């Protein structure tokens, strides 16, 4: 096909000067519309694109800017400044962090728990909404303290002593222990928000803050460095273990607890665990004195051998 000369015009008065019909590059045609004398002459741009190599990105931007158009509205590739800014945000993680901050809802609390017995009986406790913290059910907590009091030979209250509340969360177990007679409780909780907005307010509300020691650390690290955190005060009289079910290996955890200097010959260890979990009949020098089921939750309590006789006699 012959290429029209530089002076040729199409029937639409399209100036085809320097226009190659066989080129795969983007085409820019300038049309001049002439009609009746009463209509003013109008000019407009038509952009057509075919696959293949065309103008370079900078050339396209310069061409569109020459005609007063915004290149970002017509080009799929962002401007170099925008691309560079996007890359910088990806490198620093700012973009991802902003998206995560926007998508994460604020954490809130409600008062669904309460102290079941002792000096702070019926006082309401804060707990987080949602499932990120799962407190011990009240029916399980009531059964655990009833068994401990009977095994200790004092059905009305706990034997005075020190309590270690591992994975304390809301602190409902340790607070129950202080309310029923324990002299001091060590709370181990790694979530800063839970400590500041749930655990500490619960201790202040019940008036037990002076009897509490809070360790904001992972339970595994606490057990590894027990003497560093607790000092030379020796073993605890009571230890409660209420971990998030799916985030721990109970075999590894119980082995670590049984070998810890925090467990003594007269200690009691309370363990809450899910179905289809094999719990040993002993924990170090302690024997299992009970293992009860509450729906999908199991409660195992380990204690000294003498506690079995006292529990049977009460």
Automatic annotation (TrEMBL):
CDD domains the UniProt entry points to: AdoMet_MTases
Pfam families in alphabetical order: Cons_hypoth95
Sample GO molecular function, one term: methyltransferase activity
Gene Ontology biological process terms, A to Z: rRNA methylation
Region feature (Disordered): 67-109
Keyword list, A-Z: Methyltransferase, Transferase
Name of the protein this chain belongs to: Uncharacterized protein LOC115757465
Species assigned in the record: Rhodamnia argentea
């Amino acid at each position: 096909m012959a290429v029209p000369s530089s002076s040729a015009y199409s029937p639409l008065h399209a100036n085809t000067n320097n226009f190659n019909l066989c080129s795969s590059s983007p085409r820019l045609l300038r049309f001049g519309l002439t009609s009746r004398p009463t209509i003013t002459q109008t000019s407009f741009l038509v952009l057509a694109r075919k696959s293949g190599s065309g103008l370079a990105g900078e050339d396209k931007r310069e061409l569109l800017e020459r005609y007063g158009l915004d290149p970002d509205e017509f080009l799929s590739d962002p401007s170099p400044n925008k691309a560079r800014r996007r890359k910088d945000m990806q490198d620093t993680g700012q973009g991802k962090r902003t998206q995560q901050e926007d998508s994460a809802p604020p954490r809130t609390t409600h008062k669904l728990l309460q102290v079941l017995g002792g000096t702070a009986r019926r006082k309401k406790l804060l707990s987080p909404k949602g499932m990120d913290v799962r407190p011990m059910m009240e029916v399980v907590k009531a059964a655990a303290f009833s068994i401990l009091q009977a095994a200790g030979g004092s059905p009305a209250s706990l034997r005075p002593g020190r309590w270690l509340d591992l994975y304390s969360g809301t602190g409902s177990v340790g607070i129950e222990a202080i309310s029923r007679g324990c002299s001091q409780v060590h709370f181990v909780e790694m979530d800063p928000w839970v400590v500041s907005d749930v655990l500490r307010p619960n201790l202040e509300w019940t008036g037990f803050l002076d009897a509490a020691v809070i360790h904001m650390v992972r339970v595994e690290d606490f057990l590894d460095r027990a003497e560093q955190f607790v000092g030379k005060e020796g073993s605890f009289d009571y230890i409660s273990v209420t971990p998030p079910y799916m985030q721990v290996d109970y075999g590894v955890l119980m082995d670590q607890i049984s070998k810890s200097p925090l467990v003594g010959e007269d200690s009691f260890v309370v363990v809450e665990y899910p179905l289809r979990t094999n719990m040993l009949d002993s924990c170090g020098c302690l024997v299992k004195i009970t293992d009860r089921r509450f729906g999908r939750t199991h409660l195992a309590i380990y204690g000294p051998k003498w506690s079995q006789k006292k529990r049977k006699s009460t």
